[in-house]
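From the shared-data thread, chain only:
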Amino acid sequence: MHLVVVAVVAGVAGGLLGCAARERSQPLAAIDAYAAALERKDPAGAYRLMSASYRREHTVEDFGRLLAEHPADVRETVRRLRQAKRRVELTASLPYGDLGAELLLVHEGTDWRLANNPLEFYPQGTPRQTLRSFLLAAELGRFDVLLRFVPAVWAKEMTVEKLTAELIGPKRQELEDVVRALRSATDAPIEEVGEQARMSYGERFEVRFVREEGIWKIEDFD
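Structure, as tokens:
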């Protein structure tokens, strides 16, 4: 905050404050401020940059707990945001990372606020979110997260240890081939009917999704 103590420089100071306010109103400035708050471990500061609608649905305590429970993922998110394409589209959205993730912003008053939380690392609210979350977890070797995408009928017989053993053992090459093929199809059309969804990829393959208790999971890669 600037404190004007000499009347003769009040006009200059006012001009500088006006420039700072305009800069703060830019989407990228909001994103940079958000990343900076995460870097200095300031959950309250990052939370203040979230939109009013987000704050109505999530408390600052829940937000702070999310940061505390996932320090490695917080660091990865900051890295991805810092390396994001520095171009905000007219719809006030910022594509970041290389899996089609998108950060949405809303303009409230004179400031920009984040409308969705990039710290929701592996969302499964839609089939496409589930696909991108699966790819991110696979590439980061998060086998505990990969278990979330297994439908309940198979998950009850699967543990993180069993899944890890399979995916770094006999099925490692299969997983790598699937991830490679899916990376080039993250924007492919997805047909959604009721609790089922499907997406074609490659020359003859198909991903099948199933929604269980409001969460989309991956039923098969065909």
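Residues 8-114 form one domain.
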